[in-house]
Amino acid sequence: MADPVMAETKAAGTPVWPAVFYLVLVGLILGFTILVRTAGATVVALELKRDADAIVYDRHGVELGRFHLEPNMLPVTLEQMSPILVDAILIALDSDYLDPEKTETWPLLVSALDGSFSSVTPSITQLYVRLQNGVPRTRMDALREVSSVIRLERAQPKEATFEEYLSRVPLGRNSYGVEAASLAWYGRRSSKLTISQAAHLASLISNGAAPGTDEADRDDVLLALNKAGLITDGELAAQQQVTLAGLLNPIEAASPKNQMVSGIGLRVPLQKIYRNLLDSYGRDAVLRGDIEAISTIDFDLQTRVAGVVRDAMSKTAIQEAAVVVFDDRNQIRAAYGSEDRLFDRDLAQDRTASDLFGVEHRSELFSWPDEITVVQLGEYHSVFARNGRRYETAILLETRDRSGETVDRFSHDFSELVDTTTALRLTQQLDDFLFTNQTAGLTDGEIPVKGKLGIDSEQRMAWFGGASSRFTVSLWITAQFDSTSSEKENNANNLFLEREAQWLTRKIFGEAHKEM
């Protein structure tokens, strides 16, 4: 009979690590199961939004124009793609991806747990998930990615994931998806690609579209296609002879294709809005139409100002004209030029700032800009009229997303350029104008304005800058006269310029005050 004390001692010495290992393993499996059911509870499903335009509205909700560079996202099915393109992409990324017997769950989990996920070639499902979540940076991010991959592959066939991925992957030249990329790079649809073009596009996908101009990358895909028996030796040799210069469309200068209300001079304001949107939200948001803008422009006023200027040019010797209307917070309500370039003309090139603004210029007061355009002419007259306050010139009021939710509202800050006393003294140096306009909607039809009207007889130019209680108007015009050396005719030409500049100013102030 065994000694009971000895038996107890042997039992006490039995190793416990198998039990601990078992419990840890069960815990890991349970934990991973919970992670799969929670971290990846929402199946990754990227909304394949078709191309939309970034729309610009006026301050009252009237559509002014749309921005679009190119058809940059065009969802397409596998059946609509060239078969050689599908083969080339699978060869470049994962030739066995569509094999129903192939599963990658355990290797994915191991790479997430041991930290090697950053060096492991991702599956196509992972690449699809990363379009939304980005590349994982930590083990927890990697585990969440594995969870999403598992749930996604349970939720839909791999063919569906592959198809959706090929409709969203960024491929350079502002294109997303193989259909848009085919048009951007080769000028043809994905169903019409040659073998060499398909191989090049597949290399763009495998290289992350950066930079996508190396023939060696294209040739690597061609060799892989040949090795897999998907193209013949003759086809391989022929396609390797095709240079990228003969394969690709030339890169065109990226400039917005505007669909806009025509005939009322909106191109320059829309180009300024376009640049502001790019600076604030990036190229992708504008290209995809994820943003829309509410501008400071008043469509009705813009239309009326354009009509006034066109009417004057059609009936008189006025050759060029540029007009800007600001409200009392320097928000641009209208901007019309007979030519786009006129907004950039430096009016100070042949004359002094004091000539242009009609007030004394002392450096201890403030510094004039080196160049003075029609916009800056109005900005400084606004300073004089607003007690020395300089409001930041604005052309955007608000931006919204596609659902109509506000993204940003723009407050228009001001700074004190000169003190109130100095501003009053400068304003008193300006001329007084009393513009009468029966359509102004005022009780007596009179609009008092402080401003400066100038004439340059040599350049055959007139300009005006001035402000009422509510608006600031700046403009300049040139006229076409017959060459003459007669003093009498020169005087007559100057009188014409003065008369027409005053007429335009009166009409524009009247139109601006009409809605008050």
Write a compact overview of the structure shown.
With 516 residues, the chain is α+β, with helices and mostly antiparallel strands. 43% of the residues lie in helices and 16% in strands.
- Tally of individual helices: 19
- What is the second-level CATH architecture of the largest domain? 3-Layer(aba) Sandwich
Instruction: Assign the CATH topology of the largest domain.
Output: Beta-lactamase
Query: Helix amount, in percent?
Result: 40-55%
Q: Care to describe what's here?
A:
The chain starts with a helix and ends with a helix. It has a six-stranded mixed β-sheet. Strands 6-5-14-13-12-11 form a six-stranded antiparallel β-sheet. A two-stranded antiparallel sheet has the order 7-10. Helices cover 43% and strands 16% of the residues. With 516 residues, the protein is of the alpha+beta class. The chain is elongated. The chain has two domains: 169 residues, Biosynthetic peptidoglycan transglycosylase-like (Penicillin binding protein transpeptidase fold, Orthogonal Bundle), CATH 1.10.3810.10; 203 residues, 3-Layer(aba) Sandwich (Beta-lactamase). The N terminus is likely disordered.
